[in-house]
Amino acid sequence: MTKYSMLSAPDFMPVDRLRAIQNRKFLGVFRRTYENVPWYRELLAKNNVDPNSIQSLADISKLPFIKKTDLRDTYPNGMLATAMDKIVRYHASSGTTGKPIVVPYTREDLDVWSECVSRCLTAYGLDESDVLQVGYGYGLFTGGLGLHDGGTRRGCTVIPISGGNTERHLMLIQDLQVTAVACTPSYFLHVIDLADKVGYDWKATKLRVGIFGAEPWTEEMRRFIEAKTGIRAYDIYGLTEISGPGVGGECSCRTGVHIFEDHFYPEIVDPDTLQPLPDGEMGELVFTTLDKTGMPIIRYRTRDITKLVAEPCPCGRTIRRIARISHRSDDMMIIRGVNVFPGQVESSLLAVDPGLVNYQIHLSKGADGLDVIEVRVELTREKFSELGDNTASLEKFRRQIAEKLKSTVGINFKTTLVEPDSMPRSQGKIKRIFDDRNQQ
Ligand code: ADP
Ligand code: ZN
């Protein structure tokens, strides 16, 4: 067996064998967590769950969920399931306000994590001959070190450039013959933007693969990135609570993100009733870490909305896929009774002009007390030089965008055009939604 197939073997195992492995590991992680985490014992007691009733993976639906707030409440070490001596690293999720969520990792946890990232890289067609430039932030954020360790394990030459210093990104891609970059899609837009300004020749580089994740992005965005640079752009998914990037990744078919089910058991539940949903139905993604020893987590509610795809993938991988994350449940906006997802806004803008990648969504209260949704769109330099002096043409273009948004989403958007280069660029995860409704 070659190194290539050994790395990927768990991706292709027969489903019944996979389920048997999941069953065995699940019982192990449940027992470990129950025995070592007093908080978890209390959680079961509060929910009247008899631990002896958990006899197989089929019993998982008897168990309560773990939420982000539980991790905040037990900050920093309340969910630790092992002695501190075994912990070799902490990471933290970015968190918006208050205490971050910190996650302790044992050596085994780091090992599983790098294995998964390495399996992603294999699926993207990368091997020892590749040079991987990691533009995710290094530090408490899992992006940088996650791709770094996975790239090293895959045998790639890793360039730990981190986020920022975009000139140097472009320079090293050229000088060090980089074949793959990994960063947030929004940061790569920034890289592309600078490349445009300085007349960078992507064709003169060896770059052929982009690994983008840590935030939502659309198919339209993928097409824009690929058309601009000539690379193939792949999705990578993950979250700190479960390990970091590489909980799943796309394969060359790019019809969803394969979840490394032998390590992370996925479920989809109805976000309101919390009842498990069958494969193919949209709902909230829930994970159980099957191997974690530092901070195992059972039935963690990710708040990411997607569906599980069980149909065989043409690539031959038997592990299930998730569809592109539709949205985070906290990112869904309800405007005048209509559900609005940021992805719909992005798709609409890029359908009008594929260069409209810099935009923000602002929510406020109108004079009538009702919600107003405004999309501010940054004009591309090309569009600006084409229309800049002509107020009537600008207004026509603005209307075209407003109409597209209305026809896609079904409500009126206040649509504002802003000048090229006037919006802040992203170094890591981009903030696109600004909700001022409670500050007025
Ligand atoms: P935070 O919750 O503070 O943002 P993380 O860095 O752990 O912390 O981010 C994980 C979240 O990022 C996921 O739950 C998901 O919402 C989002 N995410 C990660 N990868 C992707 C992806 N490929 N597509 C869409 N969303 C993603
Ligand atoms: Zn596949």
Number-wise, the strands total 21
CATH superfamily of the largest domain: ANL, N-terminal domain
Quick one: biggest sheet? 9 strands, mixed
pLDDT under 50 segments (min length 5)?
none
The amount of helix comes to 25-40%
Total domains, how many? Answer: 2
| Second rung of CATH, namely the architecture of the largest domain | 3-Layer(aba) Sandwich
Explain what you see.
- It is a single chain.
- The protein is of the alpha/beta class and 440 residues long.
- The protein has two domains: 1-329, ANL, N-terminal domain (Rossmann fold, 3-Layer(aba) Sandwich); 333-439, 2-Layer Sandwich (GMP Synthetase, Chain A, domain 3).
- 33% of the residues lie in helices and 23% in strands.
- It contains twelve helices and 21 strands.
- It is globular.
- The structure holds adenosine-5'-diphosphate and zinc ion.
- The site of zinc ion has 6 residues, from loops.
- Zinc ion (ZN) binds at residues 251, 253, 258, 313, 315, 317.
Which key phrases capture this entry?
440 residues, alpha/beta, Rossmann fold, GMP Synthetase, Chain A, domain 3, 2 domains, nine-stranded mixed sheet, four-stranded antiparallel sheet, binds adenosine-5'-diphosphate, binds zinc ion
Entry summary:
With about 450 residues, this protein is an alpha/beta fold. It is built from twelve helices and 21 strands.
Q: Secondary-structure blueprint of this entry?
A:
Blueprint: H1 3-8, H2 15-36, H3 38-46, H4 68-73, E1 87-93, E2 101-106, H5 107-123, E3 131-134, H6 142-154, E4 157-159, H7 166-175, E5 180-183, H8 185-198, E6 209-213, H9 219-229, E7 232-239, E8 244-250, E9 257-259, E10 264-269, E11 283-289, E12 300-306, E13 308-309, E14 321-322, E15 327-328, E16 333-335, E17 338-340, H10 342-352, E18 359-365, E19 371-378, H11 381-387, H12 391-409, E20 414-418, E21 433-435
Parallel strand pairs: 3-4, 3-5, 5-6, 6-7, 18-21, 19-20
Antiparallel strand pairs: 1-2, 7-8, 8-9, 9-14, 10-11, 11-12, 12-15, 13-14, 16-17, 18-19
Helix pairs in contact: 5-6, 7-8, 8-9, 9-10, 10-12
The structure holds adenosine-5'-diphosphate and zinc ion.
